[in-house]
Amino acid sequence: EWFDEFRLREVFALMSRFTLARMIERDTFAKRLAEGAPVSMHETMYPLLQAYDSVAIEADVELGGTDQTFNLLVGRDVQRDYGQAPQQIMTSELLVGIDGVQKMSKSLGNAIGLTDAPYDLYARTMSIPDTLLPNWAGLVTRWADAEVDAFVADLQADRIHPKAAKQRLAREIVARWHTDADADTAEQRWEREVGGGEGMGISELEEMDVSVALAGISLPDLLVAAGLASSRSVGRRLVRQAGVRIDGEVQTDENRMFAAGLSHEVRVGKRSAARVRLT
């Protein structure tokens, strides 16, 4: 609306409020110039036009990703030149897309849509690289900071298997935008179609090492560490439902402890299985 009224003199007036030296301080411009890559003149207009948006609406606060920090700061300078109090700015860490490399973007094809079907949300979350788990836990969940910190600490200390961590994250995402029941259904379908547990002989599974304390490891914690349950509470529920077998024996005691030095065949229903060596 406000740019419909802009004439050439307004364009020059806006450009005169910023220097070329300041403009090429922008990290993306400076990097390209250092590499000998061209920077077109129209690209230098973008920060100024975005800055004028703040002037036009007399913005008090502007929010953006960390990739917008320079543009937001230009907005403060230009507002000051137009006689306005400079806006406060708040930036957020960028959400990395499912490719694990670039920020999430629909145009890059590495995005998950909030309106996607429950199974699509779950399956695409399960496809992310392990390295994205801390980034996503902090940005897309409803977890408090303390819960995010505990989740990341468990990952870094190998107290939770990456598969179990992704399942917990995927369930949270589906439940947030749909329902808990949808999350259950999506997880069951993913395990059946992708998880690889159903119908597999235990000899076909790679043996994994799980570190345990001197006192051993509880059955729910063992299921989480082996990637067969997304949380301790889910592990306890599986035991109560008679869905867990250790070395072919159905488990009924959710408080059972397992000592180091032994290997076990662990199965959850017909969907998931693992060979676990306790160290």
Would you summarize the structure shown here?
With 279 residues, the protein is an alpha/beta fold.
List the topology elements.
Elements: H1 8-15, H2 20-23, H3 27-34, H4 41-57, E1 61-65, H5 69-81, E2 88-92, H6 118-126, H7 133-139, H8 145-156, H9 162-177, H10 180-195, E3 207-210, E4 217-218, H11 219-225, H12 232-240, E5 244-246, E6 249-250, E7 257-258, E8 263-268, E9 272-278
Parallel strand pairs: 1-2, 3-9
Antiparallel strand pairs: 4-7, 5-6, 5-8, 8-9
Helix pairs in contact: 4-5, 6-9, 6-10, 7-8, 9-10, 11-12
Structure description:
The protein is an alpha/beta fold and 279 residues long. It has helices at residues 8-15, 20-23, 27-34, 41-57, 69-81, 118-126, 133-139, 145-156, 162-177, 180-195, 219-225, 232-240, and strands spanning 61-65, 88-92, 207-210, 217-218, 244-246, 249-250, 257-258, 263-268, 272-278. The strands form 3 sheets. Strands 3-9-8-5-6 form a 5-stranded mixed β-sheet. The protein has a two-stranded parallel sheet with strand order 1-2. Strands 4-7 form a two-stranded antiparallel ribbon. Helix 11 crosses helix 12. It is elongated. It starts with 7 loop residues before the first helix and ends with a strand.
> How large is the share of residues in beta strands?
5-15%
- How are helices and strands ordered from N to C? HHHHEHEHHHHHEEHHEEEEE
Largest sheet: 5 strands, mixed
Strand segment count: 9
What's the shape? elongated
Overall mean pLDDT stands at 86
Assembly classification: single chain
Radius of gyration: 26 Å
Number of helical segments with 4 or more residues: 12
What percent of the residues sit in helical stretches (DSSP H or I)?
40-55%
Low-confidence stretches: 197-203
Distance between the first and last residues' Cα: 67 Å
Strand order of the largest sheet: 3-9-8-5-6
